[in-house]
Amino acid sequence: MKRIVVVGGGAGGLELVTRLSKSLGKSEKAEIILVDRSRTHVWKPLLHEVAAGVIDKSSDGVDYRMHAVKHHYRFELGELTHINRNDKQIVLNTLKDEKGHEILPERHISYDYLVLAMGSVCNDFGTPGVKDFCFTLDSLDQAEQFHRALLNQLLRINQSEVDKTTLQVGIVGAGATGTELAAQLHHIANLAKAYGMPEMSSERLNVTIIEAGQRILPALPEKIAGSAKQALTKLGITLREGTMVSEATEEGFITSDNELIKADLMVWSAGVKAPDFLVEMDVFETNKANQILVNKYLQSTVDEYILVIGDCAGFEQEDGSWVPPRAQSAHQMASTAGKNIINMFKNKSLETFTYKDYGSLVHLSRYSTVGSLMGALSNSSMFIEGRLAKLVYVSLYNNHQFTVHGRLKGLMTLLSRKVSNIVRPKFKLH
């Protein structure tokens, strides 16, 4: 029996494993293995909500091991360290607990087809102090670390009844993650008042978003950016556009003009790149963003039996642009990669990948949702906002749930989430 190994259980990886297991795993035509260093999947566009504490992985996450049992594949907890192309094996690092005790030794897993779907990480561009003093929201663990730090800071501010100290939050990067997190923090500061912190409110929160570009949301249409800027400004969030950060310190961010922007909590969400070790392995051809170069079938340029999807895939389009690192890109790549692997099994011709831009959406907590629809399907994108934009935003998450769980289970999961949202606290307190 041939073996398909997928490394990375993000939006693309988990959807691909689900598709392959349904078509090949359930009928025992192939053994499907998913590898991820986390035990739980949370849709990456929602990580800022985990960080703020408005959603919980226990109700909004997918346990890989349970999902594997129900969908006829095998889950391996671990971190990829090397790929041996000659022997068709991947190497997983030793798995240790929090105290450094070994749980599992180094493991070697053979494959017939390998799919890399390890996503992306923030690019700090070598800025001093970022690794020491800043939070990033690249993974569930990092989002939960930020949430714990946020709770501690809220408790500190709540106890400062006399001097009315404010909580200073600095966010570098005004992309979707930075702007959406800022709005959620404003919402959380007000929610805290109803959850045992009577002295806390948004009036005691100062959020500053620092963007090196000339406007926020630089990758999105200007009309979306303008509407989002208006909503954020109305909330009292400070926007520092055209401001370069040269260093992060314990006190805050130092700009290129040697100005200190003070911050108790610092988040770095500027720039995106594939993980550094993809280059350090010296196995693939890569681009400046560390992405593995792929051909029109999503096969790596050095090995036809290794496919790459999602943020870590470098797919150059006919106009010279790269497919953007977005959830919709990963979803589309997972669909094409799944078809091509099945076609390889059947010795059929492969399908060419074509990226279709269906637009972009930015959800600013309960205050506003703005975006554009249609994308490449029309000559000019259609701007939407308000309830319609929120409905479309929610539908994207719903579609992900249906792909991962199936229609019936997906519908039950969404229904369970709605019931949970009614009975559970609106703010995670632990």
UniProtKB/TrEMBL annotation:
It comes from the Bacteria. Transmembrane segments: none annotated. Residues 3-334 form the FAD/NAD(P)-binding domain. It holds the Pfam family Pyr_redox_2. Keywords: FAD, Flavoprotein, NAD, Oxidoreductase. Belongs to the NADH dehydrogenase family. This is NAD(P)/FAD-dependent oxidoreductase. It comes from Salinimonas profundi.
